[in-house]
Amino acid sequence: MTADTSEDVHVRLRRAKSFTQVEQYLEQETKVRKNQPDRPCHRPRDSLFSWSSGFDNFAGLVNWGFLLLFMGSMRLLLENFLKYGIRVNPKQWLELITGDGGPENDTILMILYSIVPVVICLLIEKGLAAGILTSKFGLTTHVVNLLIHILLPMVVVHTKSKAFSLIAASSICMVYSVLFLKLWSYVQVNMWCRNSRQMNASKAHQRRQSISVGKLAIQGNQGKGQNGVGDKGSQKESDLGSSKPVQYPDNLSLRDLYYFILAPTLCYELNFPHTTRIRKRFLIKRLLEVIIGIQVMMSLFQQWIIPSVKNSLIPFSNMEFAKAVERLLKLAIPNHLVWLCFFYLTFHAWLNLLGELMHFADRNFYLDWWNSNNIDTFWRSWNMPVHRWAVRHLYIPLIEAGYTRVVATTSVFFISAFFHEYLVSVPLRTFKTWAFMGMMGQVPLSLMSRWVEKRLGPRWGNMTVWASLILGQPLCIMMYYHDYVVTHYGEALIDSYGHV
After folding, report:
1. What pLDDT digit, counting tens, does each position of 213-228 carry?
2. Where, by residue number, does the polypeptide cross the bilayer (predicted)?
């Protein structure tokens, strides 16, 4: 062993003992310094902003941030009022909802027609349960029924564009999308129950039937009950039997199906958890939140978002990067406020209102998505009905079929991207696939956010999530508005905005 090697070993041994030695040294130094006449006031410690300090109480800075954000928002709001005046007009809301001011008969007919695929789905399931239809024929019929159901709004809204307002077309697409996901769940759950019943029947057929002493005793007690002896016991048994869970195929009824259609969930079950009563105060609060929330969202749209989107048309069309970014940042704040209002209005107020009316006990409509450290966690947290449907009816079946997690995850995002594009392009009658590409872009963005979380910490991962939410949506709005104007009104209308 050379001298250098022995010296390295000696240094490593000393470093192995260094932590304890430093602690002892600091304790001895502290005792010595306390007895000094210079009254020492210093000790080894880090600055509070250093990660090694362990300090985490930033409540004052959070309050400062909220106050600064509020003051900045008030300034923009005042600027908006000074520049455009009061634009809120309930009459325009009515015209936007009803088109030319009158009732939309085609919209009402489309909503009523949505009953047809629901009834067809129930009839197919009854035929499969009774053995009238084969499994292959039933599955093919279900696929055709669901495809016609989801494609019908695309054809009708495109061919009769003047008969539907923007709000009416959006409402139709939303209703048909929700029904599509619900019927998919209904078909798949009944298929699981049907396969389970067939497996149990085949196993029971293979076993020999045997009579035990217990069965003879039960038969004897039943006979006593019929003769008037032990009627009290049989009454208890009937009471218990009335509370038994519903079994397949007893669930195949129009009442059961329409309870599921109206319930605030996308995943079908034969026996949903129920509440015992309706809380009147809770119901009134949610109803007021829905009414007030709709007014707030419509006011923000009219007063703030519409002028900002119109002003972004020219810079975005002329590819003026600096002005386009300025318009994007200006649109980000009101758009994000509307999105937050939409989240609270939909996932807390409206779904809780439906759950209370339907005695639906599972109110897990969202998790703490605002604390998400990566994009994956956000998509698993902010919309629990859709996430639960995607995991139960798409992700897990693909994994059980032998596909990899990457394929299953990509398939989930593909279906989500399709419906995002469906809900935007069909009402606007502008098929540019920006929403589709935005959702598919969440896959690489998820990888990037996980890298940021791993390398820079969860705080920076959470900031990445917030940045994607605040900037991604207004960018998509600007792109769709530009394409909508160019598609339906031509380049001449862009020139008319040049003075804005």
Report:
1. 444 344 444 444 444 4
2. 58-78, 107-125, 137-157, 163-184, 287-306, 337-355, 394-419, 431-448, 460-481
